[in-house]
Amino acid sequence: MEKAAENIDQLVQDFLILMITNDIDWAGKPDADKWSKKEIIGHLIDSANNNLNRFVRCTYEQDFKLVYAQNEWVAAQHYQDAKVEDLLTLWRLLNKQISTVLKNYPEQLLQNTCDTGRQEVNLRTVEFLANDYVAHLEHHLKQIISI
Questions:
Q1: Cα of 55 vs its chain's centroid, Å
Q2: pLDDT for position 17
Q3: DSSP codes of every residue in 111-130
Q4: Cα separations (Å) of 134 from 5, 49, 109?
Q5: Are 72 and 100 in contact, with CB atoms under 8 Å apart?
Q6: Each residue of 23-44: pLDDT tens digit?
Q7: Which of 35, 95, 98, 130 is least buried, going by the fewest C-beta atoms within 10 A?
Q8: Residue-range domains of the chain with CATH
């Protein structure tokens, strides 16, 4: 899990550096039904919250269900109305905690699973979830700025 943690740290660091040197329209929406860049960061906050929860719970619990409705969560948390600085601080700190958890994750528990399926059971290992989290993070950060 050390590699996934390092990737998270690097993505966050690179994004924060590039963000300073680029003019980002945080509030603009490409379409009425699309997320603004503030809402994308909000979605990444939700993703970090849920995955942190999964990683921690997988150390003592097996096959629990943890899913979330991403559009509803973004709307309910009013990320569009939030201060960008607050969102970035929360996002950065959540990722720092995920990195800490993954760097210290017990190797014998990497195959523990949780259910991420909405309608059907979809068991995913901690190892899969960590790698998937990194890919998801990178995908959405590229929507905001080229990293």
A1: 12
A2: 93
A3: T-EEE--SSS--EEEHHHHH
A4: 9, 14, 19
A5: no
A6: 999 999 989 899 999 999 999 9
A7: 35
A8: 2-21+34-144 (1.20.120.450)
